[in-house]
Amino acid sequence: MTLAAASTACAIVVGGIVGPLLLVGGAVILPAAAARILPRLLRTALLLSLPIAISVLVVNLFFYPAGEEVLFAIGPVRATAEGLGFGLETLARIGAISGAITLFYLTTSPGELVIDLERRGVSPRVAFVANASVQTVPAMVERAAAITAAQRARGLDTEGSVLKRLRGVLPLAGPVLLGAIAEIEERTMALEARGFTRPGRRTLLWHPPDSGRQALARWLLVAAVPLLVAARAAGLLSALA
Amino acid sequence: MTELAFESVAHVYRAGGVRALDGVDLRIASGERVAVVGQNGSGKTTLVRHLNGLLRPTSGRVLLDGTDVASHTVAELARSIGLVFQDPDQQIFAGSVRAEVEFGPRNLGMRGSQLRSAVDEALEAVGLSGEARTNPYDLGASRRKLLAMASVLAMRTPVLVLDEPTTGQDLRGVAIVRSAVDSAHAAGRTIIAISHDMDFVASTFDRVVVMRAGRVILDGPPASVFDERSWEVLRSTYLEPPLPSRLGARLGLGPTPTDEDLIRALKASA
Amino acid sequence: MTLTLDGVRYRYAGAARPALGEVSLELAAGEVVGVVGASESGKTTLCLVASGLAPRTVGGTLSGRLLLDGTDVAPLPIHALAGRIGIVFSSPATQLTGVTGTVYEEVAFGPMNLGLPRPEVIARTESALAALGIESLAGRDPALLSGGQQQLVSICGLLALRPAHLVLDEPTAQLDPAGTRLVADALSRLAAEGASILVAEQKTDLLALLCRRVVALDAGRVALAGPARSVLGDPSLDALGVSPPAPIRLARLAAGAGLPPAAARRLNEALAS
Predict the structure, then answer these.
(1) Distance in angstroms (rounded) separating the CA atoms of residues B41 and C269
(2) pTM of the entire structure?
(3) ipTM of this model?
(4) Could you tell me the fold of the domain covering B4-80+157-269?
């Protein structure tokens, strides 16, 4: 998580195109290859950033305000070299950010993350909510499907006109909400009956392994951000433009 | 007249590739009272959901009066097949009992006095006539289950399918379910019920279909399905024959699936 | 450790009438007491009060006292009672925390919450799993188990807290026959080892096997109380909306049918075995 956050911050701070590309290479591609998820990462990151990437490129190519050197023209709009340059820079940044976030998402299991956070002092109740919100989604989806089936069996037409489908919103959403609320009460009782509301820390059976080197790496990454900001302010990074 | 037929129906769930139905051939004549029994996972629920099109066969056909149900939508099939789900809270959404019961028949196009009488009849059948304006969630869980049944009874479909109608019901609730089944039968409707309650099954239904691992392993009247010769098959799927049939076998009185059968046989043997 | 309900009256928040009106009940150590009654007769409310969830988590007003070994537990918060009284509900899936990947972690959840030292948490989890014989399920994902298995995991989760008493509200209501058998066997095992159990059920045949004493509720009050045999054989059970155990039902029908004495004798002999 620290890597993702730091990469994102650095990508924003560092100007030009070389910087972000280095980041993509070092902070995204290398670790992904090491974790053997490079193809998956590329696919997911591409999928996520494609729409924004296309619009960024197009907008900058044709409408960059400081553009002078014209590459080609389509009717009244002109594509400029400066626009292309800026567009590519931004694309590189986007690549670094989305790559870093995707890397985080693909390599971290929510359960483990939550346990680690709890170990470091996050309240067990907050940790539980974080975990539960992710893990109850499949059950909710299943329930919604069952409700849809029950109402269809009573003649609710889910394959008809838009108006018909609008009328189906209450019979479909109603039981989902009511059921969720009713379940909350039962779940709360079950949790409380197992001592969940006891104030204070709880014993953790295990936590994800950590090492001195990992902790050092984290500190270095965090330190890199203000360093880069200072360097940029001092004009030291123009070489990477 | 509604004849139902399953022809070599197989169903494989896409998620997980589970073969829930493995070649089922079954014919249900109009007006029959059929109980489908078996452990969870034997395919009972999967089977009945093919009747109204909620599930479509992976292979084989399901026929309603000779026509393949594949050519009809679920909404269309709801005119012929009324299916009551096991969990009433998966369908209840209205603010009053009456509004909840009206939903189904309304979808089928009922209005005015026809709608009113269908709803009144259904509420009467489950003993909720006095609660027409009550909020469903002010009723306890077991009466909500009866409400769910009423909401499908009101649709007046020729076929009625009940999924675990007596689970969670007390003595009075079971009696209401039994009498509702009897009334529907008297009105000529076909009744199909999934149940774990062997006593309820033996006393209320003419035919018992036993399923295991997606197949029908026994099919016949209670007297033969609960007869001693079938016990091994029943027990292979963790089902216990009802007490009267066990006693009847021990006393050498032949098949006696219900209390009344046993008493009658005892009297006759004296 | 005796669990006592002394003149307990309870009304849910916003309800017009009390759900329990003057109930007194005692559960001694090592006893298994059954609770029967029609739907909405107060069985669930009784379980919620006996476990302390009512009024703490559920709200509402309680008058009368809940005592553990003679001490009023009113001032204790729910988490303090969690280690003394465990409660199991009828729906298998809602009682699982939903955030654990294995049965082991699920069962360890309670001891973890109590902040016990790690070796203690492990010891308790393993002895709870052994108590119900489900060590083989320890590595499985709770969400993928059958209803009966999930109920066993919930019971284990409570056992790990080493409660003095276990309260069960219709634990087999939503289970198939195989699941019911699993839970029934587990409860017999616990009873044989001296657990104190209060169990509400519609399945009177099950209670006939498990319970020493049975209490019958009617509209929030105790209508019958006494040895299991006599309460379950009481002729007024039908009127209370409770179905008597199958053998008793049969015997009653036979008596009313005017069987010739020889036939009646054969039936009674067969029923006795």
Answers:
(1) 38
(2) 0.84
(3) 0.87
(4) Rossmann fold (3.40.50)
